[in-house]
Amino acid sequence: MGRLSNEFHKVNAAARAERRLRLVRRDRFIWPGSVLGAAGFLFALSPSAALADDPGYTLCPGGLISFTGFCPADPPQPTPTPAPTPAPTPAPTPAPTPTPTPTPTPTPVDPEASFATGDLSVAMGEGAVAVGVSNTASGQRAIAVGTANLADGSNGVAIGAANEALGQTNVAMGMQNVADGAAVSVAAGIGNHSSATGSTALGIANTTSGIASSAFGYGNGASGTFSHAIGTYSTALGDYSTALGLNAATGVSAAGGLALAGWYDRNGDGNFLSPDYLNVDTDETAAAMGISAVAVGSGVRASGDYSSAFGVNAIAIATGSTAIGFGAVGDVAGALSVGSIDAPGRIVHVAAGQSGTDAVNLGQLDAVSQRVSQLETSIPSGVVAGLGTLALGNGSNASGDTSLAMGGNASSQGTQAVAIGASSAASGEQALALGGKADAAGKTSIAIGSGARTGGRSFDILSIPTGPILFAAAAAVEDESANDAIAIGTDASASADDAIAIGKGASASAAGAIAFGAGSLADTANTLSVGNASQTRVITRVGAGAIDENSSDAVTGAQLYDTNQAVAGLEGRVATLEDQAGAAVQSSAAATSAARDAAQSANLAAAGATTAAADAVNAAAGARTATVEATAAAEDARSAAQEARVSLARTEHIAISGEGDAPVASGPNAVAIGGGAQATDGNAVSIGFGNIASGNGAVAIGDPNVATGTGAVAIGEDNVATGIGAIALGNANQAYGAGAVALGNGASATGDGAVAIGPDAVAGRANQVALGSARSTYKLAGIASDASRAAQQGAVSLVTSDIAGNLATLDLDVNALQNLGNRLDAIESGVNAIGSALNRATRRADGGIATAMALGGTVMPADVDFALSFNLATFRGQQGFSGSLVARISERVWVSSGIAGSTVGGSTGARAGITFGW
């Protein structure tokens, strides 16, 4: 009680005395000897002394004081207590005649409905009871027992010394307790005050002023609705908040907060905590000031909404933050802190994480570090400068948006460009360079193979060197100004616009020229060459070309044979003409000479027709210079020549067929070679059985492939490339979307800029790059070299992958990872300390229950004046003991006292009580 202010008690005593006087006035009568006491001392020795300074009373006969201005007719008189006398021998006596008792007018109190016993005690109200000295019970069923107690209100209870229960169903028990809430408030112990409906103050000097609040212990205060303060000098100001321990506190705005304090006030200068004023040392208390905040420990503070602080001097100031351990600071929203900037903590004994959001321990991190070290030999870092890019390999650089550079010093500078291989470069937009030192510089150009190159100003260029097993080397489009050129094969060269060179050493140096086959040379514009000056080739399985005046189709040997037969027949007819001409010599030497010339010309025409239909045409023309007699023969020769004519004049497209349906080349400079091959639109190339190339510059080579879209390329077997610049190379690959690339066996790239490389690789969205499938393994040569490590600069990153195989990088802070263990150690220490405190609290609670069980066993045998009881109890491993003494002080009054304790240190307590019987 040393912390309770003396002035506080004086004010409370005066207030209680004033309330008692008002109660007396309200009841209108005071009977002699019934003056009330207050605050443990007599307010007055007689009614006249008590009201000497009050002019509003009337002194009635018999000493009755009235505040109504009139006196009752027959005031009750005190009846002395008769001395005990020996019991007379019973004898039959007649029944006494009842004497009528006059009824006072008015009657403020019904003596038969209330009970009062003891000096200066008053019971006013139906069923009211006042027992002891200076007690007042006012109200229906009010009870005041002890000394100087006041129960003012129906069902109010005041038991002990100087207690006040003011209001309906309020209870004050012990000494100097006040329960004055509107209803159902409880104050029990010493100096407690419960002033709100449903509130409870239990212990010493506790105060509750919030609805349904509670305070238990010493010097605690609870003013928030449904708040709780438990311990010593703890304060719960926020609604639904809880303060537990020594100097724990929750703020006014800390709705739902929890403060659990840990150690005793070091300086010994703590102050009594009232609902209106909080005066505590924040270094020695737990304070939860934010909404639903939790503060547990000593010197802890949780001021952020939904924050938590545990340990010693921990502070959580950010919303949703958690601070655990000595001096921990939670200043980041939603984060856990086990230290501060100046004193970082450790977290130890952490189990290995299992799910994606679990914390990892140092063992797991070491395993990752080892794997990273191994990956350094296979995945060196590159430079990523563009949006949505990927660079793998030492010195690799992906600077074009959505580009890919893979391999040492690989470079992808064009938008959606792909460079794969050591020192490969793809600088053109949607360009593809595949192979060591492959260089694709033109827009949508392709260079495949070691040293393959496309020109810097070329567009829709395909440079694919091939060999018997591997891609060959040094295929090139040499002239940077060559547009839409194609070079396929080792040392193949296409150096002019629209030129095509296919085969080892093939060369197409004139615009629109095609060199097909190893060593072929096409140096004349718009011609097809299948050999060179020293090496010629036979074209077999050629379909029969159309023979008419508009036809530009190639002819077959069978068609030429028919022409030879026709020319042979022409020779016979010319010979006949010669004979006819000889017969005409007689009539005209000039005619004979002319006929001879015509016959000679016809012979020459027949000989020429054996090798070329064009000469047959010339022969027919020459035959028209014959004489009148040879005119019919010359006309016949001309007609035969026309029937056998084969046109090999240059056209704007080429279609060469073998078996199957005839190829179709329907666009300018289109090329279709093979049964059923189709080349639609300008510069389209379809080579192989059933290939389809549809779109300007589209290329389909193999059996059968489909390339649809400007610059689309499908090479191999059963490949599909659909979209501007789409590329599908290999077997059964599919590329759908502008710039989509599918390379390998069964690869699929769907979406603009999607790239799928390797067997069964799948890139299913725009600009996604997929390498291989779930069965694939990866190896990048040179990644573990000293040169690769030396080339790395600045902070390193860790390559990560999700369940779908998407790659990204994660910053790797080695120092932060090393400090993680220290922070885990600090958290573990704090958690262990909390566990120890909870264990001690549990033992104390179990000991308290055992003590309560033992204390409840007091028995008062009949017909004795004193009884002494000893009891033992056990609860959850703790033993309780008690001793009680009961004494009869009158026929219907007993007093009792007891002491109890348990095996838990510091749990011994005492009690006292009084029992009335009637």
TrEMBL record:
Alphabetized UniProt keyword annotations: Protein transport, Transport
Gene Ontology annotations of biological process type: protein transport
Compositional bias of kind Pro residues: 73-109
Region (Disordered): 71-115
An example Gene Ontology CC term for this record: outer membrane
Domain of life: Bacteria
InterPro entries xref list: Adhesin_Head_dom, Coiled_stalk_dom, Pilin-like, Serralysin-like_metalloprot_C
Domain Trimeric autotransporter adhesin YadA-like head: from-to ranges: 116-132, 137-161, 195-219, 222-248, 302-328, 398-424, 426-452, 481-506, 665-690, 693-716, 721-747, 749-773
Trimeric autotransporter adhesin YadA-like stalk domain ranges (all copies): 346-379, 539-579
A Pfam family this chain is assigned to: YadA_stalk
The protein, known as: Hemagglutinin family protein
